[in-house]
Amino acid sequence: MTAPGIELLVVEDSEPDTVLIQEALEEALTAAGLSFRLHLVRDGLEALAFLRQQPPFEDVVLPDMILMDINMPRKNGLDVLHEIKTDVGLTHIPVVMLTTSAADTDVALAYQWQASSYLVKPTGYDQFIDAIQALEAFWMGAARFPPRV
């Protein structure tokens, strides 16, 4: 089991999806007895500023994992993924693509650019909770995060 204090970054521009993700994570992680801090940013440029600890994110702790949408304004999730995985200071962070896109081209590109996994967002709340619980069981139960740098 991963030690308490998991730092999660969610990159999502849709307010309803953000609320759903937040509720599902809180339910799954709390039920598993894990403490965590959830950071929310609304687009790819904010995500990169957060990860590079640029204003207004100078004092943040780098996340242990990133959950990221693809279709966002200003900079899409695939472009952000590529930047993360080509930055030696960030490449160690697991990135889970959590998106509505089931397009083969998006899936292939995400894995080509080293996404840790690719989840298509379920449409119903119960299915969404199930998906987040499966994510929690693997990433916060069976797997181990890289040490914080």
From TrEMBL:
InterPro entries: CheY-like_superfamily, Sig_transdc_resp-reg_receiver, TCS_response_regulator. Residues 7-136 form the Response regulatory domain. CDD domains: REC_Rcp-like. GO terms for biological process: phosphorelay signal transduction system. The modification 4-aspartylphosphate is found at D69. Transmembrane segments: none annotated. SUPFAM superfamilies: CheY-like. Pfam families: Response_reg (PF00072). It comes from the Bacteria. Keywords: Phosphoprotein. SMART domains: REC. This is Response regulator. It comes from Deinococcus ruber.
